[in-house]
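#struct-help
A.M.: can someone run this one for me? Single chain, 365 residues.
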Amino acid sequence: IIVCCIIAITSSLSMKRNILPKSFRAVKNSSDAKTLRDGVELSEGVIMPWVGFGTYRLGKDKALTPILEALSKGYRCIDTAFIYAGENTEKQVGEAIKTAIERNIIENREDIFVITKHWRKYHGYKETLDCLNLSLNRLQLDFIDLYLIHWPGPAYSTMTRRKEVMEEQGPWAYATVAEKDMVKLRSETWRAMEDALKQGKVKSIGVSNFTIRQLENLKKTAKIWPPAVNQVESHPLYPNNELREYCDKEGIVFQAYAALGGQDGTKKKWKELLNGEKLLSCAVVKEIGKDLNVSPAQVLLRYALQRNCAITPKTTSAERMQENSELFHFELSDHHMSRLNSLEVPGIAGRLCWRTDPLRMLEFE
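D.P.: on it. Structure tokens below:
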């Protein structure tokens, strides 16, 4: 009996030691990462790489090749969403993973971390589980590593919204949900995600584009808290500092999208912000890059890492993929960080993304 107990205890300890995936290494701060396999431990045994590869706007039926290229260059975190490319990108991600395993680019399913996002027209308990099952089907996966609520607001009855109607009735004019019901509906979405976590369909759950107020409302009814991640827009023009500090206090990993400035800014907006220059080509960023012998993109991505933000830069260029992954051999000085911080635009004027959404400023419960 004693021998059996010793064997059982030894086996248990061995299993405990082997919980963490061999392909990933947990480091507490993003600035401490040394490779694309270094990540943050979201929960016991679940490590999300600090640097991943984004798939937003890769194009319909055009995502497979760049995702495979990213995997071949060592990226081990792929960020996608139900809605990307007209609900097409998840399928491409699934094909890329399958092909990468067949070609021995990655060892197996456990050698990759997959993030996808629930879409707003599926808010609600049953609807969320339906959305998740559709994503699992498209991705050809048994589980998703990180599942996020993509947007805290409602879907719309039409995307051809008339300006005069919204001016008269307000930004909720075309919403499929009344503003007063949004908090409760969002809590049902989260409840479904909590159950999916218990069922093993997802390994961790989080949110995207949530404000402090929306997180506090969710906290009131959540059984699982905190969300593992809040993926939000963040770059020198709009660093989202207050939200980042809140997430840090609550134990929520802050993941920055549009770290390079995003793709939604108009010529008019860039003229207002940087005299027509985009963030990648503005003088401050270029001067710091020249000083350190790195590219402007590397400057901006390193800036995010040194603010303890996870990142998922996207590109279709193999050369830029390589460049975006080489962030661990240099550091920005305090002076460099200060210069980049000085680019911040007061308030929400520096926000670049979701520009066509009536509720893009997220000023609702």
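A.M.: thanks! The longest helix spans residues 182-199.
D.P.: also worth noting: Confidence is low (pLDDT under 50) at residues 2-20.
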